What we know:
Blueprint: E1 7-16, E2 21-29, E3 43-49, E4 56-62, E5 74-82, E6 88-97, E7 103-112, E8 119-120, E9 144-145, E10 147-154, E11 161-168, E12 178-185, E13 192-194, E14 209-216, E15 219-225, H1 233-238, E16 242-249, E17 262-266, E18 269-276, E19 282-288, E20 304-309, E21 312-315
Parallel strand pairs: 7-9
Antiparallel strand pairs: 1-2, 2-3, 3-4, 5-6, 6-7, 7-8, 10-11, 11-12, 12-13, 14-15, 15-16, 16-17, 18-19, 19-20, 20-21
Amino acid sequence: MFDLADSYVWDFWFADDGDRYHLFFLYASRALHDPEDRHYRASVGHAVSTDLVSWERVADALVRGGADDFDALATWTGSTVRRADGTWFLFYTGSRLAEDGRNVQRVGYATSSDLYTWHKNTANPVLEADGEVYERLANTEWHDEAFRDPWVFADPAGDGWHMYVTARATHGPLNGRGVVAHATSPDLETWELQAPVSAPTEQGFGQLEVTQVEQVDGRAVLLFSCMPAQATDAVRERHPRGAVWAVPADDVLGPFDIEAATPITDDDLYVGRLIQDRAGAWQLLAFRNVGPDGTFVGGITDPLPVGWDGDRLVVKQPATVSA
């Protein structure tokens, strides 16, 4: 388990250099008192492990930028990949406030030769919502301009790179507009926005947070997170406490039928991440969200083994959440 006594810890992602697992995580001081205030104080921390259980914290990866930067408010969730030339790319969300006080999210990246020292790209941001396919502040009643949590992965056929992004369509029910935005790149540096790989639906979600796609035991699956309050009535009626969701698919490139999503955890855990251990088994880690008293907990669980039960990806061993 990874926990910090003096800080809230929540969203996270991994990199694997073949020797160590690298954990990149959002954190903010518990001196804020109200855990909801953590989002606007987030930095990206870094820890390493050889077994996904015992973690050593090392120097932080990223902090927010200056007043004129796209990440002036906070640095949020992302993903980390390695290019063939050995360069590591850390894609992340840059957050800043618009004049009306709502949050605008865009995607940028930093690079590193060793996963420890990171340099932000001077041309950030590299991707943002377009207002035509993907909702912007000018055409939404949503509480922010959602375009965050970039998940980057190599094309299965070796043809460049793909990025999935938490975004919202410009049409559909307010709590069903959440879609998986898609972008492509030949080199990880320049990106072109594409059509989404999912569709808004009356039986969907307002936001598909922290997406990830993997081939688990030979079958493609999309993972995302959404709390019940941001889902449509139809979803809440079926799964009143669902929080981390899994969608089986024929291919990691989609399309993804969001109406087929089933919960892999209740709302005591959030932001599930899949990773293979050194034995090749798939594990799920998540952050501890709600404790028995209903308050935010924080900190990241130990690995939880997962597998398929028919068409459902399930946790084989439930986690215990404590305050």
